[in-house]
Structures are given as structure tokens and as C-alpha cells.
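Memo to structure team: turn this sequence into C-alpha cells by end of day. - J.P.
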Amino acid sequence: MPIYEYRCQACGHELESMQKMSDEPLTECPECQAPQLTKLMSAAGSFQFKEKSRGGCEAGACGTGGCPALQ
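Reply from structure team:
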């Protein structure tokens, strides 16, 4: 799922939001509630993937490429 970056034109607050590509862009600033959020251009490839746990993880092995559950 892509991570989008936004900036409020009213107060300058910046935030990131994980949204589906089909979701409508955010418009209301969570900081000042002004309807002035604009989506920022960011580097391609800002995605977060869900990992499916299959059990059997050993402490410290996950996230290092050595997780037996993901092999």
C-alpha cells in the first residue's frame, strides 16, 4: 500500500498516510482542521507491504532475511 505525504497550506503541518491508490486524497489537516492539505511529490517506491506470519519465527531472525517462516 502506498504511503502518501501531505502538507497543510494553512499551518505547514506535514504528515504521512498509508492509503490505497483508489482512496480519495486527504483534505482536512489533523492539526488545525483547515481543509488545505496538499499531496506532496515524493520518491517512487514508498510502499509498505504486509507480511504474512506463518509461525515458527525465532527471536531476532525476523527482519534480517533469516526468518524461517518466510523461507
